[in-house]
Specification:
This protein is an alpha/beta fold. Helices cover about 55% and strands about 10% of the residues. It folds into three domains: about 170 residues, Glutamyl-tRNA reductase, N-terminal domain (Beta Polymerase, domain 2, 2-Layer Sandwich); about 130 residues, NAD(P)-binding Rossmann-like Domain (Rossmann fold, 3-Layer(aba) Sandwich); about 55 residues. The strands form two sheets. The chain has a six-stranded parallel beta sheet with strand order 7-6-5-8-9-10, with helices on one face. The chain has a four-stranded antiparallel beta sheet with strand order 2-3-1-4. Helix 6 packs across helix 8.
Length: about 400
């Protein structure tokens, strides 16, 4: 049933980016990440699960026959991070958005369509949603229910981006951060370090190339990825472990990795800062890659995801007129989803029918009437088998035909 879907989310509306990190599933590597998510799904007896974490939201989306309510949502977040008992325990129930049934589906529609984003109209969240689904499916967390939802969400979001102006002149957290960076009017000769070479810093690198910044050095945990980006934007590439030994100095750092602890802490900053002076650090990671003491250092201009909030609010005001049009489109897709789900529910019910009817036929021929059939002439035996095969097909086709006639129209 559609009521078997449930969704828990905490977003930029409730917390700033630094506090949001407490609700993200931590892990050491891909194997431990998969094990951790399976542990969450199994603990709450859910059949399927989709997990999405970005710089401004965390979503746990479940499908399962076992009831899941607001109290379970609180338990889940404590399970994700037991330290919440010491930090946000007194208000955790107020931080959670909980949605069930069609409300959960509707929320996913609005997320993927960027209506509910920190930056209204940015398409990055659409890519992040599809990437999260792909990863969870690969981990064995998603089944048929999530497949149907993902297909419907993608279709709806594409419709919004195509038929409204919500994504016109698209912006993103990265582009807003770059705008903040450009306000400093730093010389093109500025020494820039990119810590991380994932999707975010790849976009950053392309912006820097566009604005003719040439002294760029990339550090990444996977050297091949750093090398690939360096070749694209004309930069130097190193493995992340070489960062400690880097002594060429810097003027600007863009940091965005999946590290669970700060990479640029006070010790690392002191080693990198060989010549003193004012520095600009743009930290687009969640959890943050830059420690608090560095962010608050005297000569550091620190820009984080939270810094771009005011720009994002202005973006919201400009695009708010398109939100109503987008919701009209999404409401149509929600109606389609209900019809699609009903059709799929009937298909599931009848999915086992052919096999069961085949078993009945085989039992009749090979057990119940075996001896009687064996005493018949060969041509009579062949006719009985032919009739049994015909009846098998019809016994499958007739109920399916009746069921489809009762299904909502496509």
């Amino acid at each position: 049933m559609i009521t078997d879907f449930s969704l828990i989310t905490i977003t930029h509306k409730q917390l700033n980016a630094e506090d949001l990190k407490h609700f993200i599933v931590s892990y050491d590597d891909e194997q431990s990440y998969s094990e951790r998510l399976h542990e969450i799904k199994d603990r709450f007896a859910q059949e399927e699960m989709l997990y999405l974490a970005t710089c401004n939201r965390v979503i746990f989306f479940f499908y399962g026959k076992t009831a899941f309510n607001e109290h379970h949502a609180v338990d889940l977040l404590h399970f994700v991070n037991p330290e919440l008992a010491k930090t946000h325990h007194h208000r955790i129930d107020k931080l959670i958005e909980f949605h069930q049934g069609m409300n959960a589906i509707s929320h996913l529609y609005e997320v993927a369509s960027s209506i509910d984003s920190l930056v209204i109209g940015e398409r990055e969240i659409f890519r992040q949603f599809r990437q999260a689904y792909g990863k969870c499916r690969q981990m064995g967390l998603c089944g048929d229910a999530m497949r149907i939802v993902e297909k419907s969400v993608v279709k709806a979001a594409k419709d919004v981006y195509t038929n409204t102006e919500i994504g016109a002149k698209p912006v993103s957290v990265v582009s807003l951060a770059i705008q903040e960076f450009l306000k400093h009017k730093l010389p093109k000769s500025s020494r820039i370090l990119l810590i991380g070479s994932g999707e975010t810093n790849t976009t950053v690198g392309r912006f820097l190339k566009k604005y003719n910044y040439e002294d760029i050095v990339i550090f990444n945990r996977t050297f091949d990825n750093a090398l690939k980006l360096s070749e694209e934007i004309g930069a130097k590439a190193f493995h992340l472990k070489e960062l400690e030994d880097y002594r060429a100095g810097f003027d600007v750092i863009f940091a965005c990795t999946s590290a669970q602890d700060p990479i640029i802490n006070a010790r690392m900053y002191d080693m990198l800062d060989v010549d003193g002076g004012d520095k600009v650090i743009i930290d687009l990671a969640i959890p943050h890659n830059v420690s608090t003491d560095v962010a608050h250092a005297q000569h550091v201009e620190y820009i984080s995801v939270d810094t771009v909030r005011k720009l994002a609010e202005e973006n919201l005001r400009r695009r708010s007129g398109n939100i109503a049009a987008a919701r009209i489109i999404l409401n149509g897709h929600l109606e389609e989803f209900e019809q699609l789900w009903e059709r799929r529910k009937v298909e599931r019910v009848f999915g086992a029918l052919p096999g069961e009817i085949k078993k009945v036929k085989e039992r009749a021929l090979d057990l119940v009437y075996k001896e009687a059939i064996a005493n018949l002439p060969a041509d009579a035996q062949a006719l009985i088998h032919e009739i049994a095969g015909y009846m098998e097909k019809k016994c499958v086709a007739v109920p399916m035909k009746i069921a489809k006639a009762e299904m909502p129209a496509k």
